[in-house]
C-alpha cells in the first residue's frame, strides 16, 4: 500500500521538483539579463557623457585657437586638426583621447608636409620661451620685469632688422 501511494505521488513530487528547478534557473537567468541591461545602460550613459566632454573640449580648443590666431589661420589650423583627428581615429579605431592638445600643436606646427604660414610684408612673429621667466617674475618687482622684457624685445627687434 505504501509503494502504491508512493508511485501515485512520485509524478507530482517530480513535477514539483522540476518546477522548483525551472523557477531557480529562470530567476538567475532573469537576474543576469537585468544586470546586463543595467550595465549596457551605464556603458551608453558613460559613452554619451564622454562624447559631451569631448565636444566641450573641442569647443574650448577651438576658442583658444581663435583667440590666438587670425580667423583665416584659425580656420586652417582647426581644419588640419580635424584631418589629423580623422586620420588618428581611423588608425587607432576611435580610441583617441582629446584631453591633451598634442594634435592641435601638430596642426599648428604643420604636421608632416603641411604648413600654416602667411607672408606679411614688414611683419615678424617670434615665438620664444624665456627660461626661468616665471621664477624671475615672482621675485622681481613689476617694473623690473617690464624693463627686462622691454630690453629683450628691443634686442629681438635689432636682431630681426
From TrEMBL:
Keyword Chaperone annotated: no
Species: Chloropicon roscoffensis
Source organism phylogeny: Eukaryota, Viridiplantae, Chlorophyta, Chloropicophyceae, Chloropicales
GO BP: intracellular signal transduction; receptor guanylyl cyclase signaling pathway
Superkingdom of the organism of origin: Eukaryota
InterPro entries for this protein: A/G_cyclase, Cyclic_nucleotide_synthase, Nucleotide_cyclase
Name this protein carries in UniProt: Guanylate cyclase domain-containing protein
Coiled-coil stretches noted in the UniProt entry, renumbered to this chain: none
Pfam families: Guanylate_cyc
Principal cellular location given in the protein's record: membrane
Residues in Guanylate cyclase domain copies: 124-161
GO MF annotations, alphabetized: adenylate cyclase activity; guanylate cyclase activity; nucleotide binding; peptide receptor activity
Keyword line: Lyase, Membrane, Nucleotide-binding, Transmembrane, Transmembrane helix
Sequence intervals crossing the membrane: 6-29
GO cellular component: plasma membrane
Keyword DNA-binding attached: no
Annotated compartments: Membrane
